Amino acid sequence: MMKRLVTWLLVAAIQASGFGPAFAAIAPDSGKTLLGSVVSTTWANRPTSAGADQIYLFTDVGSSGTLMRYAGSRWRPLAGQAQLAALGAAVTGIANSETIVLQALIPAGVWQTSDSVRIWATINKSGTTDTGLLTVRIGTTGTTSDTAITGLSSFLLFSAANLSGGSTFDIRLNSATSAQKVGSNLNGSASYSTPNSAAAPAAATTITDASANALYVSLSLASGGATNTLSITSGQIQLITP
After folding, report:
1. With contact defined as beta carbons under 8 Å apart, do 204 and 96 qualify?
2. CA gap 158, 241 in Å, rounded
3. Residue 86 burial by Cβ neighbours in a 10 Å radius (0-12, 13-18, 19+)
4. With contact defined as beta carbons under 8 Å apart, do 97 and 222 qualify?
5. Residue 206 belongs to what domain range?
6. For labelling alongside 137, which of 36, 51, 104, 126 has CA 20 to 30 A away?
7. For 128-150, what is each residue's pLDDT tens digit?
């Protein structure tokens, strides 16, 4: 199969160059489908549709570009997931002023209704005097002036006694202008860390139109006081499609 694939790619390259004779397409092994070549472009230059065997690399979607296929009515990342941002190095010494520590820019129209943005992070606190707070914001500026998501605004990540933790949060796009934290809405609980909670689900948050605007998703931290500091050692922002 590997030799056959390499040969097919060489033939395709020769045909595309215009310097060689046309070759008949080489069929893949029995029972397998040989996909077309990967087309690299930006999201703004995406075609309105594409064949099911065509893969596109959208270079400005995610931290290293995202491979997608057209799924009949929309573009979807391969395997239904895409990494939008990843923490490259630990951020330490976060004091009692809200500080953005992880951020992704989603081009207009990439995040679609029923998709979720998943944020996970490993966060530590330097001592047991102060609390630790987390906020997720979505908007067009990429600053702390963007809209805070209900249920994730000054979220109590750490009580004073706690020093380390990891959290995962899902934010579902209900419509182009409505985003909602899903799962547990208990303050101090990640989306799925509490099986059951007496807290009502988080209300939806009105956001800038995701279909018409590039939106920043920002994770920020702050210490609850002037004694302890926070640090984030790992984290990602992902797009999850149904």
Report:
1. no
2. 30
3. middle
4. yes
5. 83-240
6. 126
7. 999 999 999 999 999 999 999 99
